[in-house]
Amino acid sequence: MEKTLAIIKPDCVRNGNIGKVISKIEENGLKIVAMKMVKLSQKDAEGFYYVHRGKPFFNSLVSFMTEDPVVLMVLSGDNAISKWREIMGSTNPEEAKDGSIRKSMGTNIERNCVHGSDSPESADFEIKYFFNSFEILF
């Protein structure tokens, strides 16, 4: 079974959409094998998004991700990475398919409600960044 990291971002948490996102995950056959709510510090967000350091949107992304709590999850299932990315929809909600999380709950390219790993390598880094092996139950 493949694993991926999923984040319900501050905008989605603030708008009361945690349950809707979890329902989408479960309805699409993915299993939540770890979950917690945290408030990221600036250092946490900068470390997580290190690949974007130096890009024009880095500071606003870090600021956004530290505004309010986020929900961190490890999802498991067949082709979990690609399946979760399909459920999320395109990064830009305006370009996302109807029925996707970002189309229905995202605001713009930065405030797009959810995050998902884009490869097995990033999933491995991202999961280990937020979870230790004792927190992942399957």
Note the topology.
Elements: E1 2-8, H1 10-14, H2 18-27, E2 31-38, H3 42-48, H4 58-65, E3 70-77, H5 80-88, H6 101-105, E4 114-116, H7 120-130
Antiparallel strand pairs: 1-3, 1-4, 2-3
Write a brief caption for the model.
By secondary structure, the chain is of the alpha+beta class.
What does this protein structure show overall?
This protein is α+β, with helices and mostly antiparallel strands. It starts with a strand and ends in an 8-residue tail after the last helix. It is built from seven helices and four strands. It has a single domain, classed as Nucleoside diphosphate kinase-like domain (Alpha-Beta Plaits, 2-Layer Sandwich), CATH 3.30.70. The radius of gyration is 14 Å and the shape is globular. It is 40% helix and 19% strand.
Largest beta-sheet characterization: 4 strands, antiparallel
Strands side by side in the biggest sheet:
2-3-1-4
How would you sum up the global shape?
globular
**CATH architectural category:** 2-Layer Sandwich
Number of helices: 7
The N- and C-terminal alpha carbons lie at a distance of: 10 Å
